[in-house]
């Protein structure tokens, strides 16, 4: 019995690093801090390699890392997962970004060791501008007045 236990322990010790090295999931692309104007669309990238069919890629976001997606499914109409499934891309696409979307996002895979894949989404106010030039002529000088009008939507 000791002989069998010793060989089994030795076999597991030799094979464990090989199996673990082949199966260990890791991020190949992580989301980056991004600034977007309110009302525009944005995509936060996240790619993971060495995942299995049982692996779940999840996105969490504001407020307070609220659950947003799992796998390629989202319960939110403005949040979708895009990217090439064969390349293990799980990019979070947000349409018509609102101020409430601003904050910390996390792409999370339980099997990945180390730091989580996080990024901050900053949402800027939407601004429109108009420029008007007024020219005044006299016999001795030319006066140009330029007026900028900024309006927050």
Automatic annotation (TrEMBL):
CDD domains in the cross-refs: IgV
Keyword terms, alphabetized: Signal
Domain of life: Eukaryota
Signal peptide feature range: 1-21
PROSITE patterns given in the database record: IG_LIKE
Transmembrane segments: none
Keyword Phosphoprotein found: no
Location of the Ig-like domain: 17-122
Protein name according to UniProt: Synaptogenesis protein syg-1-like
Annotated organism of origin: Branchiostoma belcheri
Lineage: Eukaryota, Metazoa, Chordata, Cephalochordata, Leptocardii
